[in-house]
């Protein structure tokens, strides 16, 4: 069973940057797609970005396109999310999980998440 451990969240002002990391254990990531998902206050969890590990193809939702970049490190079995030009609406609990690329939804287990708060 895949396990995920997220880190890197924090509080930043609008326009700031954060880099989230996710250590994945239980299997090599080479043959899966993974993603970052966000649960904003009072809202359902939703995908932010996904990546296909085999070829590095990336997918973003419209409101983070151009600001966020997803990475995977196949040697370290890690997933990262570089977040730039952060906005208050980016606030939420971010967690990594397997990603169904067709629907941009999670499958399987996910970690505890890491909190991102963007406010002035």
Strand and helix layout:
Layout: E1 3-7, E2 10-12, E3 18-25, E4 33-39, E5 46-52, E6 58-60, E7 68-73, E8 78-83, E9 92-100, E10 105-110, E11 114-118
Parallel strand pairs: 2-11
Antiparallel strand pairs: 1-3, 3-8, 4-5, 4-9, 5-6, 7-8, 9-10, 9-11
Name its key features:
120 residues, mainly beta, 7-stranded mixed sheet, 4-stranded antiparallel sheet, 0% helix, globular
Describe the fold and architecture.
The protein is mostly beta strands. Helices cover 0% and strands 54% of the residues. It contains no helices and 11 strands. The strands form 2 sheets. Strands 2, 4, 5, 6, 9, 10 and 11 form a 7-stranded mixed beta sheet that branches. A 4-stranded antiparallel beta sheet has the order 1-3-8-7, with no helix packed on it. Strand 9 and strand 10 form a beta hairpin.
What is the compact description of this entry?
The chain has 120 residues and is mainly β.
Helix segment count?
Answer: 0
Task: Report the mean per-residue pLDDT as an integer.
Answer: 94
**Shape, please?**
globular
The total of beta strands comes to 11
Q: What proportion strand?
A: over 45%
Unreliable runs, pLDDT <50, ≥5 residues?
none
């Amino acid at each position: 069973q895949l396990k995920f451990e997220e880190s890197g969240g924090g509080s930043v002002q609008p326009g700031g940057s954060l880099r989230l990391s996710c250590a994945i254990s239980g299997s090599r990531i080479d043959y899966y797609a993974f993603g970052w998902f966000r649960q904003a206050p009072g809202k359902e969890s939703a995908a932010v970005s996904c990546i296909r590990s085999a070829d590095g193809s990336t997918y973003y939702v419209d409101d983070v396109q151009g600001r966020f970049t997803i990475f995977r490190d196949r040697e370290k079995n890690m997933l990262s999310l570089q977040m730039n030009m952060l906005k208050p609406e980016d606030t939420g609990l971010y967690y990594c999980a397997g990603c169904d690329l067709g629907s941009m939804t999670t499958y399987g287990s996910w970690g505890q998440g890491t909190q991102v708060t963007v406010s002035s």
